[in-house]
């Protein structure tokens, strides 16, 4: 999905204009210095947790020595910051339980209704 497609879906689902939807997306995801809620928070070393969706974090990697794989020559690898994302439980379950069709659309796999108290609690029913 492109940013434009995302804005169109957001506009349809929230009954706002496409231009306003694009402004909302830019306010959240922009990577321009001083803009973008997510980028600004990560710049400040703060985590962003969206319950059920996931957590964005900044990770720091120390400087270290490595090797050029072609020559075997030692090289210095600089320290750096990077962004990581860890999917939340709700997103993991949604993706795990979705099925992709030949047309490329995903839908939730049907879940069998629990047949006993053990099923409702998630305990195994057969040994």
Q: What's the CATH architecture of one domain?
A: Irregular
Oligomer: single chain
What is the CATH domain class of one domain? Few Secondary Structures
Side by side, the strands of the main sheet go 1-2-5
Number of helices: 5
User: Which fold does the CATH topology of one domain refer to?
Assistant: HU Protein, Chain A
| Cα-based radius of gyration, to the nearest Å | 22 Å
The structural class is: alpha+beta
* Overall geometric form: extended
Count of distinct strands: 7
Main beta sheet: 3 strands, antiparallel
Task: Please report which band the strand proportion falls in: under 5%, 5-15%, 15-25%, 25-35%, 35-45% or over 45%.
Answer: 25-35%
Low-confidence stretches: none
- What is the terminal separation in angstroms? 44 Å
The percent of residues in helical segments reads 25-40%
Fourth-level CATH superfamily of one domain:
IHF-like DNA-binding proteins
Look at the structure and give the mean pLDDT: 86
Order of SSEs: HHHEEEEEHEEH
Task: Walk me through what this model shows.
The protein has a three-stranded antiparallel beta sheet with strand order 1-2-5. A two-stranded antiparallel ribbon has the order 3-4. A two-stranded antiparallel ribbon has the order 6-7. It contains five helices and seven strands. Helix 1 (3-14) crosses helix 2 (18-29). The chain has a domain at 51-108: IHF-like DNA-binding proteins (HU Protein, Chain A), CATH 4.10.520.10. The mean pLDDT is 86. The protein is of the alpha+beta class.
